[in-house]
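fyi for ur records
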Amino acid sequence: MVALVALGWPAVSRAEADAPGRPLYALCGAYPPEMAALKKEFGIGGDGWTRSSIKGIEFWKGRYRDKDVVVFRTGISLVNAAYQLQLAFDHFPITHVLFAGVAGGTDPDLHVGDVVIPERWAYHSEAAYLNDDGKGGFHIPDYLKPKYENFGMIFPDDVAAIREGDADFKEISAFAADPALLDASRRAVPKLPAQRKAGRDVTVSVGGTGVAGPVFLDNARYREWVFRVWKARCLDMESTALAHVAYANRKPVLIIRGLSDLAGGQQGKNPIDSNEARVSEIAVRVLRGVLDEL
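which gave:
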């Protein structure tokens, strides 16, 4: 069983934290409920933690057991997440990125509170918005060779990315989570204590695809389309950007998402507001279990 109490750990000197070859784990959340869960679980802000601020972003450095960590908020949405993770890479010798937060569930087999750790991340909204042709179709520009089913006027496409060592940008359909971190997740899951939400034990599963875009999804038809096209297990507003930036920097990344809602699959009003705090705690406890396996 994994101990999940909040503790403080001794301070680590800058010389130790920045020593060549010593891992530095970035632990991230996007917005206040996720950051509150991280701070509570790891005792951030207590003895042994040092705070710094860069361009308004707060960073906490310390040690969890034998591991050096830096904890910070990525902000909501793709642009914030990409900018703030790159800012962290530029100022700290980060070797691994682990994110825990909430998402909308798009896999109909999943329930609120369940946790998913996808193997890959795609953009669902990297797309062309096209005029209809008056004949039941759309005017498709010559450059666009549709690879995916469209959602009305929205024609999704792959993104082009580049990194050190590449001769040019190349199209990428999805950015992979790190295999070693996924293996650690698979080892961690059977050891996690049971977590309950809405009167049931939640599931924690590793695998499949997640998607992200710059929208809060609360639409049943779009949700069904996302699952049909990508077999997406969850949808959020940051993860693919985080995976993209980690890819560009050749850094291992793992993203853990607890389901705070069903992305429009529920009856009536979206329930994220009443679920985000508890589900953030569940996701962060899974992150801690993974970290214990590294």
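The first strand starts at residue 24 and ends at 29. thats all i got for now
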